[in-house]
Sequence to fold (174 residues):
Amino acid sequence: ASVASRRPGASGTMGTRKRFEGYLGWHIVIGLFMFVATTFVLVAISDEVIQGRPLTVMDADFSAWLQTTRTPARLNAMRYVTWLGSTVVASSVTTAVGIYLLLKQRRYWFTALVLSVAGGAILNRLLKSAFQRARPQLDDPIFTFTGYSFPSGHTAGATLFWGVLAAYAMSRTS
Fold:
């Protein structure tokens, strides 16, 4: 008799396989749905950017409003948020979490983190080259960055990093 049949409550190979396929199946379906939905959103935003439609006008208006309503507190807050999304901070936090995942022998999640964050950075650079949207021209900028402005590297990096971390946390609670 197999080990599974000797232990009460053991499900054996078929039960494990069925649970795995159901678990994996739903994750693939939900993942594909999210991918398609976010792709449609990115295409819509990209079209707005390329055509210079209302979304980009709103973006320029918001930049102008920030410029004219500058306060020391708002400047400090913006500097802090910008620093949090910097390459140095993002790389440091990703490395620290990666080391944690390796120490906990979570190789799958380590690979997911590295591929997501590094792959996202590469994709972001490629998309910036494709769109070539210039950065806003401000009279008295707080920071000056080189390169194109769309899509946002801060947003992409944060979304990918925190997305993988959230998926990891969810996997640990089920």
Observations:
- DSSP finds seven helices and no strands in the chain.
- Confidence is low (pLDDT under 50) at residues 1-10.
